[in-house]
Design a protein that fits this description.
The chain is of the alpha+beta class. Helices cover about 20% and strands about 30% of the residues. The relative contact order is 0.11.
């Protein structure tokens, strides 16, 4: 047995080495992949499943090599990026592998048969090892169970949507089972408990979660706020939903609101409205990509601050309701009308003049806007909107939203419907709200679903305002608040808890 004093010395030495090698910045990459999908919806043989996965990994390996050649230390690839998403529980089974806990200290590239048949993990490990780069990928995990487990599925196994991370030596250093499944992911099981996966590198502390997870407290907020990760790795298969939930729009806002780097790699499929990847920081996007016109993937590479919280220009803390609770309430001076953003009923007020002050309230939320348009198109209508309530048809979670948005047409009944283009620019805007949460995400979206890096700021009193007007026509300005404590219990997860009791 090694004496405890020796272990302590070894740990201290390892920490010292890590700190000595620590970098202030690092180069990171994300790859938006146009996934090659199965040609059949029926179950295939393991050999055919592997053949499809190898075709996708051929593409991913090319991106990994190119990223490494550009100096990237880590690359994130998309959710569903190796086999797609059109599956039932039975048809996805040939694509799954048993993914061990990273504590086993395993390099699949050099020891591929240690945990049975694992060709996908072997190849991903070798991509990392051969190119001296961390590789983040999304694959499926399978875990056997039996009748002693009251939740064990009838087919005798759990199936998990899983992210894996291999370090630059090819070692498996992280495994994360997606906790918040999207409603169509019936091929996978919910983990019994949320996982809060982090790992240290010479270029910062990393956390990982997947797609729909970003909208919930666990694990997303816990990783960023409580465990204080520097960078979040985020494989996603995000379907863009205007006006507030396009991938680049919300993911950039989340990184700013949480004060972390977010490496977001989306799948690319225009039929499914999937595009939008980026390297996002507490100050906005370092680099992003959104293209709904082509079917091609895209590699993004950028240099990021390794430890943004230690930066002298790290954003100051924000009291999101400070300004809005002190300003004059103009709600009695403005006519309002209801309007739907999908199923959510907003309270809207039309901006009838080129400049002015508006207040719109719904329940506990009052939204205040000061604005001045620089050129008002006669064929366009803008409104100020407020929403304070539960969102979602099955999984219900609480939003508070203040938004300045362009209506789809001059017909007020279209306000809230998706609009991708605009002609009106603003000389200034200042948006604030009486939010009942500290978790508010600032969004500014230009015509053509483009971001506005460096053109707006968030003040410590909660105002989201333009710096020098808008350089392009404006689609939306939004403060997107999440009241996690008001979310309803997850219906499917609550049912599983009932079964365990």
């Amino acid at each position: 047995m090694v004496p405890s004093q020796t272990l302590v010395c070894a740990a201290v030495l390892a920490l010292a080495v890590l700190q000595a090698l620590a970098s202030d910045t690092f180069i990171a990459a994300v790859y938006e992949h146009a996934v090659i999908l199965p040609r059949t919806i029926h179950k295939v043989s393991p050999a055919d499943a592997l053949a499809l996965m190898n075709r996708n990994m051929d593409v991913l390996e090319g991106a990994v090599k190119e990223a490494a050649q550009q100096g990237a230390r880590i690359i994130v690839t998309p959710e569903d990026g190796i086999y797609g998403w059109v599956f039932t529980r039975e048809t996805i089974y040939p694509y799954l592998e048993d993914i061990p806990d990273p504590e086993v200290n395993w390099i699949p590239c050099t020891d591929p048969t240690r945990f049975g048949r694992t060709p996908v993990q072997e190849r991903l490990s070798c991509m990392a090892r051969n190119n001296s780069i961390y590789v983040v990928a999304n694959i499926g995990d399978k875990k056997p169970c039996n009748s002693s487990d009251p939740n064990c599925p009838s087919d005798g196994r759990y199936q998990y949507n899983t992210d894996v991370v291999f370090d630059s030596e090819g070692k498996l250093v992280a495994r994360y089972h997606k906790y918040n499944l999207f409603r169509q992911e019936t091929q996978f099981n919910y983990p019994k408990e949320p996982e809060f996966i982090t790992f240290e590198t010479p270029f910062g502390k990393f956390g990982v979660f997947t797609c729909f997870d970003i909208l919930f407290r666990e694990p997303a907020v816990v990783l960023a706020s409580e465990l204080q990760v520097d960078t979040v790795l985020f494989p996603t298969a995000w379907m863009n939903v205007l006006p507030f939930l396009t991938a680049v729009e919300f993911h950039s806002a989340w990184a700013m609101g949480m004060g972390v780097n977010l490496l977001s790699a989306n799948t690319h499929n225009t039929i499914m409205s999937m595009t939008g990847s980026g390297l996002f920081t507490p100050h906005g996007p370092a680099l992003y990509y959104y293209n709904s016109k082509t079917e091609e993937g895209r590699l993004l590479v950028a240099e990021l601050n390794a430890r943004p919280r230690l930066s002298p220009n790290y954003p100051a803390a924000v009291n999101w309701s400070s300004y809005a609770t002190s300003v004059k309430n103009y709600s009695r001076e403005n006519e309002t009308f209801p309007g739907a953003v999908r199923r959510d009923i907003f309270t809207f007020s039309e901006l009838k003049h080129k400049a002015g002050n508006h207040t719109v309230c719904q329940k506990d939320l009052c939204c205040h806007l000061a604005y001045r348009m620089s050129n008002k198109s006669k064929d366009e209508v803008y409104v100020l909107g407020a929403f304070d309530g539960l969102h979602g048809s099955v999984i219900k979670y609480h939003w508070q939203i203040c938004t300045l948005l362009k209506c789809k047409s001059t017909d007020l009944s279209t306000c809230g419907q998706p609009a991708e283009t605009a002609e009106t620019k603003f000389a200034m805007f200042s948006l604030s709200g009486t939010f009942g949460t500290n978790y508010v995400f600032p969004e500014v979206l230009y015509s053509g679903v483009q971001l506005a890096p460096g053109e707006f700021e968030v003040l410590s009193d909660g105002r989201l305002q333009s710096k020098n007007g808008t350089s392009k026509p404006l689609l939306t300005v939004t403060l997107f608040g999440r009241c996690y404590e008001k979310d309803l219990p997850h219906p499917l997860r609550s049912f599983l808890t009932y079964l365990r009791l």
